[in-house]
Write a structure and sequence with these properties.
Largest sheet: none
Oligomer: single chain
Strand content: under 5%
Helix content: over 70%
Radius of gyration: 22 Å
Length: 53
């Protein structure tokens, strides 16, 4: 019985591992898109000296 329990735990771990990687990657992509959208909406005249407000 312990062999099947260990196998079940390992199968669950490795099945959930891609989700553990995909969710932070998706979050970073959404943050990058949001940053791009905000910067695209700001006129270039605010960055005359090369500094952000």
């Amino acid at each position: 019985m312990s062999r099947w329990t260990a196998l079940g735990v390992m199968m669950t771990f490795f099945a959930m591992l891609p989700l553990d990687i995909d969710v932070p990657a998706l979050n970073l992509c959404l943050m990058a898109v949001a940053r791009w959208a905000v910067l695209a909406g700001i006129p270039d005249t605010l960055f005359v000296r090369g500094q952000a407000a």
